[in-house]
Amino acid sequence: MEELIPKLKQQIIEQLNLEDMTPDDIDEKAPLFNEGLGLDSIDALELIVLLEREYGIKMENPQDGKKVFYSVETLAQFILENKK
Amino acid sequence: MYINAAIAISPQDTFLKDQIADEVIEHNGIMKTILPDFKEYFKPIDLRRMSRIIKSGTTTALECLKEAGIEKPDAIITGTGLGCLEDTESFLNKMIDNNEGLLTPTAFIQSTHNTIGGHVALTVQCNEYNVAYVHKTISFETALLDAVLMLGEGKAENILVGGIDEMTQENYELKKRVNLWKKEPFSNLNTYKSDSEGCIPGEGATFFNVTKTRKANSYAEIKMVELVHKYENIDDFKKLIENRINNSGITINDIDLVLFGYNGDDNGDAYYDLLKDSIFSKSGHAYYKHLCGEYDTAPAFALWLAVKIFKTGKAPDNIFIKKPEGEIKNILIYNQDINKNHAFMLLSK
């Protein structure tokens, strides 16, 4: 988990083109959407592609999205539990 | 139709400026635009999805509305030859890299030809007529012609019209293979003196606000927009253009300055010479592609230049082939693509 979180933050910065941001600027416990980073629905699609491409994980149940994508920490937890 | 505002981002320092500096900025290879600080215009969260052309196009459009004192236009009409090329390339490259799977939405969403028209409309909350013309080298003139017709029919009071194109490294390399560009190094300062094939690639974003009636802040009147796909007989073509100009309310002898689209390619430049040395021999002669390079909507930059000549009453010395005597009151802009897409825009002060 400790190694995954900074790596995931860097991947999110690159995937979402978050210019001028560093991993340290992202609070892993803060919400990714609306508040916190202020991401939107297009970003959610980008994150789904990131999960599949980098970790081989497919989001089978869209209902899980809200919980999985709540923060960097919940996303990292989901990756650790589902990584193939 | 009257022009009330004109804003350009170009390979020269033109953004929010009223004239080209006496010293032309030299480029070798691609003539890239000189960009303002976009952070002054957009939030970082919005900027991250915007490519160079989207930022340039939207910013020039917003500044154009500001200059015209208009919050929301009645129509947004854009012209572009290749649209948002960087995003198109990004999307297509990802398709190849990912074997047509795992495609991300952002580049695809931003890759359409109407992305900038859409961005501007969303920014100013304009739900009115919004069209992008993609007609190669007459894309901008076609957009302008649409504005002329709309205003003429009374379907709009004021319209935002723009021409936008970008040059990417990938597009540059592809067209280099078919010898479309000058062999490097080639300076834009030598455009008119060139006696070889190929031109210099450029790019730009230019927007205008136009109205049917003259306003206190109107700089120029568009008297004529004329498009001729190609001609077989030069004498018939000369007669046609002469007739069209004479029908616009002024005569061909009233044209003080013709702004030609000389781009340094021998194959195409010869067609400008045919009119320069005949029906336009009495007018002053100038050119502009040493300032902006060659791209499909370069005539929009020429229109910006002409409008600024009227606004300031001055023209930069570096554009003249033959300087006119006296005040410049009527300017004709002529662009063509090796005897295809001949486009004329006639302006009066």
Topology at a glance:
The complex is a heterodimer of chains A (84) and B (349).
Chain A: H1 4-15, H2 41-55, H3 65-68, H4 72-82
Chain B: E1 2-9, H1 44-47, H2 52-68, E2 75-79, H3 85-97, H4 105-109, H5 115-124, E3 129-133, H6 139-152, E4 158-165, H7 169-176, E5 204-211, E6 220-228, H8 234-246, E7 257-260, H9 266-276, E8 284-287, H10 289-292, H11 298-312, E9 320-322, E10 330-335, E11 342-348
Parallel strand pairs in B: 2-3, 2-4, 7-8, 7-10
Antiparallel strand pairs in B: 1-5, 1-6, 4-5, 6-11, 8-9, 10-11
Describe the structure.
The complex is a heterodimer of chains A (84) and B (349). Chain A has 84 residues and is mainly α. Chain A has four helices and no strands. Chain A has helices at 4-15, 41-55, 65-68, 72-82. The relative contact order of chain A is 0.20. By secondary structure, chain B is an alpha/beta fold. Helix content of chain B is 33%, strand content 19%. An eleven-stranded mixed beta sheet of chain B has the order 3-2-4-5-1-6-11-10-7-8-9, sandwiched between helices. In chain B, a hairpin with a 6-residue loop joins strand 10 and strand 11. In chain B, helix 2 crosses helix 5 (115-124). The longest helix of chain B has 17 residues, at 52-68. Chain B starts with a strand and ends with a strand. The chains are: A mainly alpha (84), B alpha/beta (349). Chains A and B meet through helix 2 of A and helix 1 and helix 4 of B.
Keywords for this entry:
heterodimer, A: 84 residues, mainly alpha, 4 helices, 0% strand, globular, B: 349 residues, alpha/beta, Peroxisomal Thiolase, Chain A, domain 1, 11-stranded mixed β-sheet, 11 helices, 11 strands
Quick synopsis:
Chain A is mostly helical and 84 residues long.
